Amino acid sequence: MFGTIFDIVHFAIHDGPGIRQTIFFKGCPLSCWWCHNPESRSSDIKLVDREETMDGFKLSDKETIGMRYSIDGVMTEINKDIVFFEESGGGVTLSGGEPLQQHEFALELLKECRKLEIHTCVDTTGNLSSDILSNIASYTDLFLYDLKHIDDAQHIKYTGVSNKQILNNLKMLDEMKKDVWIRFPLIPGINDDESDFLRLMEFLSKLKNDHPISLLPYHKIGSQKYNRYGIEYKMNGISEPDSDYIFQIKSMFTNAGFATSVGG
Ligand code: SF4
User: Fold this and answer.
1) pLDDT tens-digit profile of 15-59?
2) How many domains does one find in the chain?
3) Domain that holds residue 92
4) CATH number of the domain within which 14 lies
5) 159 C-alpha to center of ligand 1: Å?
6) Mean pLDDT score, 67-94
7) Is the pLDDT of residue 124 over 80?
8) Shortest CA distance to 159 belongs to which of 190, 188, 180?
9) Strand locations in 76-165, DSSP E?
10) To test the ligand 1 pocket, which listed residue (39, 102, 125) has its Cβ within 8 A of the most ligand atoms?
11) Which of 189-194's residues contact partners 24+ apart within 8 Å by CB, and which partners?
């Protein structure tokens, strides 16, 4: 069995507890306007142009985005960092793209990690069948779960898919009493309408268990990649939120009783 991976990051500290190794799967069913990893969207391995300037000279090169890995190939990478996982309470995070678009490969990796008692985390859009997600959940210690917009029409506009399955799957993980950290990208003018925040908090307050929320303020890192990958960048004119504004939104969630942090 092979999976298509576009990056493996050692010593990651924002993708779950402790020091982690994050495996970035290629392919995503969403097409978020603000995505800072546009190279992750297509599940194909691609050859793209790369230009670098060295000593005033422009150098052109080709770069391959994505690589086929076997389970053993990924486990070889994971095994290099086990000592750091043990010392820091860390582990392995499957991210992307959407890692569960390659759910069979993801499941095998999670099973291998479980055999070695490595903490596992899956960073998911939640946009997949409930049966697959429930199977994955049996081998996952923690989910990082993206909620991008509570309004379905707006969700479709900005990500290309409905949020119905995403919200239903979050309810299912909650019923299963899984550890879930919710991640909300905070994007001025796109998902920061006060009435939408109230709807989001109403939805979250109906979950049976507490799930911490991370606000991920929009940033423009990655915008220059769009040209390289031949993808239209639609976020021109959208500003990064300033710290006062971020604090104001965080306070709104905190005052409503949600454990809320910024970043992650
Ligand atoms: S879900 Fe994540 S990887 Fe997929 S398009 Fe959106 S931001 Fe990019």
Assistant:
1) 999 999 999 999 999 999 999 888 889 999 988 877 777 778 777
2) 1
3) 2-262
4) 3.20.20.70
5) 8
6) 98
7) yes
8) 190
9) 91-95, 119-124, 142-146
10) 125
11) 189/238, 190/33, 190/34, 190/149, 190/154, 190/158, 190/218, 190/238, 191/148, 191/149, 191/150, 191/154, 191/158, 192/241, 192/249
